[in-house]
Every structure is written in C-alpha cells, then in structure tokens.
Amino acid sequence: MSAPRVTTAPKVVAVTASSPADLSGLRAGDELLFLNGRSPRDVIEYSLLVDEPDLDLVVRRRGLAEPFPITVTKEPGEPLGVEVSSAVFDRVRTCDNHCEFCFIHQLPKGMRRSLSLKDDDYRLSFLYGNFTTLTRFTEMDLERVLTERLSPLFVSIHATDPDVRAGLLRNRRGATSLRWLGALLDGGIEVHGQVVVCPGKNDGAVLHDTLAGVLDRYPRLATVACVPLGVSRFSHESAMRPHSREEAAAVCDTVDEWQETFLAAIGRRMVFAADEYYLMAGRPFPPARTYEGFPQHENGLGMARAFEAAFGGDERAALGVRPGFFAAVDGAPPTGYRAPRNAANGGSIATPDAPVAILTGEYGALVLGPLVDSLGRGDIRLVPVANHFFGGNIGVSGLLTGTDLIDVLDRQPEGHRYLLPDSCLSEGRFLDDLTVADLPRPVEVVPTDGLSLRRALEGTLADTTSGPGCGSAVSTAPARVPVTLGGSR
Ligand code: SF4
C-alpha cells in the first residue's frame, strides 16, 4: 500500500441508517484514507471504488491514535451509504487567467470564500458543467478524460483567433490551449462551448471569425453558447460595459446567420444566443424547436421557451436542473462548488386563496409577464426585484440577494403568498449569505421551471425542493443562473 497522494482524504459527513457503511461501523467524521488500497483524487475515482462489492477501508477517526481497517461487504453497485465532504480531494485546479469580464473580480468584498473560487478544472466541468479554458489542461488530463470517458465537458472558447483569445484571457496560454479542444473532440468526447461576448472586444467581426473558426476546426462541438458579459457596479475594468440594444440585436443577427450556415454544413444549428440577448434587443425568442432539445438550457439558452412550454403544461419541457453525472455519485455533496438549492420554505402563513405575488428578477418579469397575464387571474401579481446589490446590468433571478428581497418585501402587504424561484438559493442561502428566514415575509420557494410555477399558482405543488444548481455565471432567464460565479462564463 503506497502513501496517500491526496492532500485531503474523503471525509464522511453523514451515514445512511442501515446502509452497508452503517452496518460496518463507519461514522460521520471518519476520514477514508484508503479504499481497496487506493486514495481517490476526487469523487469520480471515489465512485468507481465504492462501486466494488467488497471494500477494504483504512479509516482515521478523531480521538484514536492510529488509523484502523474496516471491511464493508455489499452488493456490486449498492450504495455505500456515506456522504463525503467534497467532490475533489486534492486541490481544485484554479485558473491562471485574468479575464476582464470575470464576474468573480466584480463581487463585493466580504462574500463567502467559496464564491471566489476561480476554478479551471476539467473535473468540475464534468461533474457540474463548469466551463474550463483548458489553459491548465495537460497530456495526463487528456489521457484520463479519454480513458475514463469523462463526457460531456464544457469549454470556454471566447475567440478562435489565438491572439484575440490570449488577450481576452490575459494569458499567453490562451493562444494555444484550444489544441486540447481538438484532441478531446478527436477522442470522441462531447464538448459544449461558450463565448462570453464583450462589446467592442469579441463581438462583430471577431464573433463572425470565431464561428467560422468553430466550423472550420471544431465542427464536432455539440453546441456553442453566445452569452453576454455581466457587469456589476463593482467592476474596475473600464473597457467592460453592457451591450447596447443595437449590439444585442447584432449578436442575435450573427447567431441567426450562422445557424443557417451550420445547418447547411453539418445539419444542425450548433450556435445559440442566450435569452438575455432577445430581451435586450426587444425581440421575440426563437421558436422552441430551433433550440434542438435545449442542450444548454441551464446556461440560459432557450430557457424562456422551455419555461413557457412547461407553464402551458408540457411536462417534457420542465427541464429544471438536469442531474448530470454528479447526481449518480454515491453520497458526494457539491458543497463549495454547486450546492443543491435545498429550498427550505419560509412557511407561508397565508391562506390558500390569498393574493399571490411572484418574486422575480427584472429579466424574469419580462418573461413571466405574458404568461401570468394569460391566466386572466387578478389575484396574481409579479414583483420584479431590482438587483441593487450587484447593480450594473445584472437582472437575472438567479443572482437575487436577500438584501434586495428584504427591501422589496418590507413594502409588500402581509398575508399574501410570496413565491420565490429556487435558482437564487444555494443550500438554502442567498449569495449574500442571508436565508429565507431572514426575509420579512414568509415565502414559498418554487423550483425554477414553468410547470412548478403553474402548480404553485394552482396550489398543487407538492414538493418544493430541487436538485443541484449549475449553469453559466451571468446568463439569462426567468430564473436559473448559477450560484457558482467562477469559470469563464
Ligand atoms: S472568467 Fe473564468 S477563466 Fe476568466 S479569470 Fe474568471 S474564473 Fe478565470
């Protein structure tokens, strides 16, 4: 048995009653130094190890001088029954870029540390859909991804011109790291791309050049999302500014044009514009069918159309948050990366027939307005919440904070039902660390999909918790934007 190569052993934070782990004597607080002689680097390795029917563990327990062995006997594939404390047991690979548009650099001081994690780790891309620039990707990483089929991955492209890309990332390696994208695609890995479009930097002719480069060099990409940069009032980057209406319309036109080109060349549209662009440009969203199954729904592409369809009763369109690989990992919590929204309700004391107020961001209100109007119910109103906390052009529901909600709810009447999208919560907390218990009115937390909202309005929503949040940083939609702000999103 070799020495552990990890800096942190998987730590048990919970044991399921009567599970194999419980029956074998594992306890919360135990550290799993070895599993069948191996010390996993991350939950990807961990999940493979705990899949084994017989498991020889070496456990370190507080209060005991020496680690000791535990043997677990279980059926192949049977969950071990423990929840461990992290998804990555060695160090999360952090990014070495200095993007002007990075939202992490635009956070106010004093926010919790996990929000400031600038990860650029392909494992978090696989586990949570975080975008990676590949500037720290290595030959060994490629070998592992191909061998273990870690697919899909999510890659930040921004520009295919090497010099432009290096300039956007402010990192020389940005000029060459897309070679890994080619290698991943050649190896059959499904990869979704993203372009954070910054007006005056990589829009206009540069965006055309980027999409031409995608068609030329990376036609096997699954999708490319064009998303607008977010600019908070804490930005110190003088060259970063929100899109004008005309610039947003130009991005919509560019995407339209290239969809036609991709359709003709490879039989699918490949590139999509974030919903925010259509809102900024004052244009209708494209038809639902043109989103080709909503492959980047979580990143705000087609979310409004899917929400609309689900609100109309189409259960297949109630995409919410897709479980992805992570949901299949036995017991590994996403704490510190993308946590479950864990939408504990505030315990509404309103009567079922009380007037209903839907709390939402300013962009969300634009999407929800027509849907609510279509119900013809005078007892339902929208309450748009302006984002004074971040300021700038931040208008998505996923970045709503407790501070702004308190301001708004203080002025709302008591005794009404207040519905809140779960996308602004991570483990029950807002970005500013407040919880629904800190709000001056009880709220009902509703999963962020059209079907759940419809059911909440009809009083038939049974379960108001939802799965892990994820997606791109400052993307669009009635709700659902990530609570993890890192990554070149
Ligand atoms: S946007 Fe992403 S890649 Fe760029 S500096 Fe921020 S975390 Fe790093």
Question: What features would you describe in this structure?
Answer:
By secondary structure, this protein is an alpha/beta fold. The protein has 13 helices and 13 strands. It has helices at 20-24, 43-49, 122-128, 139-148, 162-169, 178-186, 204-217, 245-266, 275-281, 303-311, 362-375, 402-409, 450-458, and strands at residues 12-15, 31-35, 54-60, 68-73, 82-84, 153-156, 191-197, 223-228, 271-273, 356-361, 380-385, 417-421, 444-446. Strands 6-7-8-9 form a 4-stranded parallel beta sheet. The protein has a 4-stranded parallel beta sheet with strand order 11-10-12-13, sandwiched between helices. Strands 2-3-4 form a 3-stranded antiparallel beta sheet. Strand 8, helix 8 and strand 9 (271-273) form a beta-alpha-beta unit. Helix 7 runs parallel beside helix 8, helix 8 crosses helix 9 (275-281) and helix 10 (303-311) runs parallel beside helix 13. The chain starts with 11 loop residues before the first strand and ends in a 31-residue tail after the last helix. The model is unreliable at 322-343 and 463-489 (pLDDT under 50). Iron/sulfur cluster (SF4) is lined by residues 95, 97-99, 102, 104, 118, 120, 133, 486-488.
